[in-house]
Design goal:
With 17 residues, the chain is largely without helices or strands. The chain has no helix or strand. The two termini are 13 Å apart. It is an enzyme of class 1 (oxidoreductase).
């Protein structure tokens, strides 16, 4: 998990999606 959300265009992290 990363402290910041992934940029639009990259696969969604476990926190988003």
């Amino acid at each position: 998990d990363k402290p910041e959300p992934p940029p639009e265009g990259r696969l969604p992290d476990a926190t988003q999606g």
